[in-house]
Amino acid sequence: MKLTVKAGRGDKMHLHIDGEYFLTVDNGYLAELGVFNGMDVDCEDIERLRVDIGVRRAYNKAVDLLSRRDHSRKELLDKLRQKGYGEYAVEAIEKLNDYGYIDDKRFAQIFAEELVRLKSYGKKRVEQELYRKGVERDIICEVISECDFPSEKLAEIIERKYSRYLNDEKGVNKTVNALLRLGYTYTEIRDAIREITDREDFENIYE
Question: Which of 49, 75, 122, 196 gives 71 a disulfide partner, CB atoms 3.0 to 4.6 angstroms apart?
């Protein structure tokens, strides 16, 4: 079988096998592939080119995604598969991992810190969000144990956002439910409310 190369727009080069379109690559990558116009190829050569080019495309797309923001390994793999890179996604991810572009521990640390700092999430909610991103349990536990969850932060949140609701039971329940969704425990919420209020009836609300 004969491989022919035809120039496309810009630096694009179109590969044909016995006159039929095969794949498109950029001119720089063409040299890396070690192919040239008019070379003879067999089925093994064609399969190698198909895989190499597919992995290259998946890798480039992954780099583009990472240039916008950091991703966990699973999150990036899922996005590549969703975009049609299927069988090439895993190998592309492995290359990124080898080059140090993917690090789930680093990702989890940065993401957890952002959730605490920007969204005031508690431990449970941070754990849930990391799990949704595909971070492994052992990494989540390690990151959570290292993450700074200042005890005074919850009281500050309540004073800033919910103090006006603490005058009756309905308002208290609304506050508790909102804080539970943020990932705080009943005990943490109870103690924080007790810290900022003098009302005696708060003593038994969460018992």
Answer: 75
